[in-house]
Amino acid sequence: MKTYKLSKEYTYVIYGAAFLGVQILTGLRNSGYNVNAFLDKRASELKEVEGVKVYEPQSYKSDNKENVVVIVAVTTTFEHPKIATYLRTLGYHKIICKMDENAGLVADNLKKIAYAYDKILESDIDENVELREWMASDELYYFKDYALITEDCNYIVAYIPVELCYTGKDDKGKDADTLILYSQIDMIDLYKFFDGHLDSSEGTINFLKKYFYENTDKYCSFNRTEQGFHDFVVSNYEFYSKMSYLANMGMSFFIDNPISVYWNDKGYFNIDDISKVNFIIAKGLRYIPAKMEKEDYMKWKNQEKLQACEKCIVEMNCLPAYAPILHPNFMGYPTKRDTIGNTRLSRIMKYLYRKGYELKGKKIIDIGAYYSFFAQAFQRQGADVTTIEVFESSYEAGKKINDLLRCSQINALQGDIMTTEIKDKFDVTNLLTVFYPYFQEGRGKNFIKKVSDFTNYMLIWESGGNAQEEIQFILENSDFIRYEKIGETYGTGLLREMGVFYKK
Predict the structure, then answer these.
(1) Which of 140, 167, 191 is the last residue of a domain?
(2) Which among 124, 140, 156 is the end of a domain?
(3) Domain residues for 89?
(4) How far apart are CA 260 and CA 280, in angstroms?
(5) Count of CB atoms within 10 A of residue 43's CB?
(6) DSSP code per residue over 245-305
(7) For residue 220, what are the contacts with CB-CB under 8 A and spacing of at least 6?
(8) What is the pLDDT of residues 439-470, one digit of tens each?
(9) Helix boundaries (H) for 168-224
(10) pTM
C-alpha cells in the first residue's frame, strides 16, 4: 500500500461543514494549505461555508483524487472509521481521521493517522510523519485480545460475554448447563424492577414467586411461605443496593473480586456466582470479569483455529459483523447490532422462557445467519441447527467462526433461500431482518410460502421499517395463524419490531 506525507502540494477537502469543519478550515488556511471544498450531506442547505463551496460527498468531482487529502470533521469519533471507509469507496485514498483507542481500531498505521489528525486540530501539521493510504477494510485487519485483564502463573482474569455464561451443577445436578439469560430471567427482572426499569411489578413478582417456590431447596434459610418470599425479596434488594453502590464507583470491585468460572468443552463457561452475573446483566452490561485457570482461557482462545479465522476474514475482505463474535480477539471487531443492553438474543430467550419453550432437541434453521451468532447460541442450548447465508464471504467467515467457537456441528448452507433446496422440516425458523427486502421487491409471497412449508411450529421474525404491513402480509400468505409481539427494536437505522408467528 502506498504511503505519503502531508504537504502543501495536495488539495484538501473537509468532510463535515459544521463547527469542527470550520475550525479545521481556519487552521489549514492560516498554515498556507489549500482547502478546495467541504463534503456534507446537507450541501443543498449549506451551499457555501466561509467562502468554500459545500458538495454532497458523491457529487464532488476532482481531476485527480490521488492528489486530494480528505479530513473527517465529525465530532463523534466512533463514526470516523465508517466515514473513512465510505470515502474510500468514492475513490479517495488519503484520508485523515481520528481513531478511538477503546474501539480496537488502533493498529500502528492507524495510530499515525490519528496523530496527524490531532496535529491538524492543533494547527501544527507534521509533514514528516509517513502515512499509509486508507484501505477499504483497514478497521477489520487488526485483531487483539481485549478480554484479558490480568494474569499470573496459574490464573487469568478476563471479561467474558454473558452469552457464554451458563449455570453450574448443584448437588442434585439441577439446572446444569443452562444459559444464564434463559434460566435467571426472573431474578434479572427483579433487579430491573428495583432499578425502575420495569413499570409494573405484578408480572415480575408473579413469575418470581413461581421461581422461588420451585427452587426453595436452593434457599434453605427460607420456608415456602409468603414470609419466606418476602424475606427473599428483601435480601435481594439489599444485595442489589450494595452492588449498585459499588458499581457507581466503577468496575474495580468486580475486577478485584471476579466470579470464578471453568470451561465447558461444549463451548461456554460454567459459573458459580450467579447473583453477580444477574446484577451485571440487569445493569445492561454484557461483559463480566471472571477468574479462570490459564488452561481454560486458552481453550476459549482456541489458538489452533484462530489464525485461520483471522486469515479468512482478511482475505475475504469481510464486512463488519452484524452481531458480536464471542472471542477475545474479536471484542474490537466492528459490530452493527447486539452490542449493548437488552439484546435481541436476550429478548428472545426471555420470551421463550416465559412460554416454557426449551430449545434442547429442537430442529432450528437460521435464515440470513451472517456469522451465525444466533445459531451458535441455539446450538449451545442443545438444538440441532442449520444455517443459510446468501453472501459467500459471510458464509466462509461464518464457518471459520463456528470452528473457532466450537460450534462446528452447525449445518451451514450457502445460497439464496429461494433457490436452495430445503429438504428438512424445522420446529423453529429464525428470520431476523431478512424478509423485508423480499417483501419490498415484490417477492414476499413465494418467500414466506417456502418458509411456511418447512416450518412446523414457530417463526421468530424481525421487521424492516413497516412492521404492521409485514405482519398482515405474512398472516395472509402463509400457514401461520397467529402472531405475538416480543418488542420493538432498533438497528441499522430503522425502528423495527420483533415477534413470533405460530402455526398452532
Answers:
(1) 140
(2) 140
(3) 3-140
(4) 15
(5) 19
(6) HHHHT-SHHHHHSPEEEEEETTTEEEES-HHHHHHHHHTT--EEEEEEEHHHHHHHHTHHH
(7) none
(8) 999 999 999 999 999 999 999 999 998 999 99
(9) 180-183, 185-194, 202-214
(10) 0.77
